[in-house]
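Annotators were shown the component list below and the corresponding predicted structure, then asked to write short factual statements about the assembly.
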Amino acid sequence: MSVREEVLSLLCENARYSTTDLARQIDADEGEIEAIIETLEDEGVIRGYQAVVDWRQVDDEPVRALVECNVTLDRETGYDDIADRLAKFPEVESLRLVSGEYDFSLGVRADSMSDVSRFVSEKVAPVPEITQTVTHYLMTTYKERGVEFDDGHDDDRLSVSP
Amino acid sequence: MNPSERTQRVPPSGIRRFFELAEEMDDVISLGVGEPDFTAPWSAREAAIDSLERGRTSYTANRGMAELREAIATNVDEQYSLDYDPDEEIIVTAGASEAIDVAFRALLDPGDRVAVAQPAYISYVPGVIFAGGEPLRVPTREEDAFKLTPEVLDAHDAGEADMLVLCYPNNPTGAIMTREELAPIAAFAREHDLTVLSDEIYAELTYGRDHTSIATLPGMRERTIVFNGFSKAYAMTGLRLGYALAPPETIRAMNRIHQYSLLSAPTTAQYAALDALEHADNAVAEMCTQYDRRRRFVLSRFEEMGIDCFEAEGAFYVFPESPWPDAEAFAEALLDETGVAVVPGDVFGAGGEGHLRVSYATGLEDLREAMARIEAFVE
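Structure shown to annotators:
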């Protein structure tokens, strides 16, 4: 694995690693690590740094939903055009074109179920190319971006062992 | 009832004392742990569950399931160029520890001498004594990076022994030995007609170099027993599954004891192991990557603290010099005042004095905090 790949792998594991700790783990120079991160950011390889949050532990837990969208294309409008339009809404957390029975998968986030419903019925469904939406409210998240919530794996090893 | 003289000759483990001290305290960050902090690959655990659901709860063949022995033979051939017949030259045991114990009992007659390269895993010397043998401690030296040399063997009259015990990659030092470094040891063993017991349980955990088994050196296969298992690389310590590779007559002798004492290794664990060999390559590689990063982190932190620590290249330990001449006193004070548990090196036998075993089989957040506490304590 190259140093560049190592940096990416470690940042995916924990974006809060300091450059000092990254350098220690990769056995590289701290300045080199800083330069690599800067390049990765400039090139748009690293698009941002976010926390993985278990929202159940937060009082004002937002409502999240997955919205399946079917679309009909014409000569003037392609998937990218529809995606451009949908991605602009702040309620849309993620947007993916997928294969299978529907075309787009939208991750939507809002303050309440009625806000989600209103957003889907008033903003998403009226887009002319969208022919059908199916909304799935997220009930419980058990794992997100590789992190298991409440995995129950406490360290029960002996404090000292051979 | 009076305990036998053999059991009385073996003092309580030095590790036990530290374990008891650590258990009495809250908020301990333990770097004294000799087992992975990962859990066994999920597909291996699934295989164990599936075997139970299917009611596979009976004994297996004494030597282990035929398909597992075949998988082991394929694996050791591909990984380490070790060519063993699964029907005659492999025995599956309840952990590598059982294999080592059985090997001592199968090969030693009363009074036979066993040279044990130290510092090393704490069970070899007691195992020799329990089997009626006489241990001969052969300390490796820090100036040799804790690698065994023929000079050290000579200096401690190891040529007069009947057997030599090696543990590379080494617990507790993290030292490994290359083919070039093993060659003179092999020559010594051939010259003095030593049987070699090679504990290679950490073979998959090497960083930067591939593991070489001494059994692959010329003239060594017929005089070597190789031990390995699933505890370390596959994070399956609690499943207790290991194996030994040796010529047929040795395996037959070991099996004679094993069939009366254990009958067969745990069946559930054998199914887990079989799956691990077939499906866990990526999981092992990922664990190795994580260990390597932590190794570099810990080595770098000791360097920053000005604490001498040679570059461990295997297992999941580093073995720095103790900042105080008395490593046991240091480890005790460190635990008492900072809640960080490390193990004094003399627990692991000759050559370990004045050192500390620091395990990095712990998450990086804890490692970072533990190293900060050590740094503050040393200052």
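Statements collected:
1. The CA atoms of residues 337 and 368 of chain B lie 17 Å apart.
2. Chain B has two domains: 5-40+280-378, 43-279.
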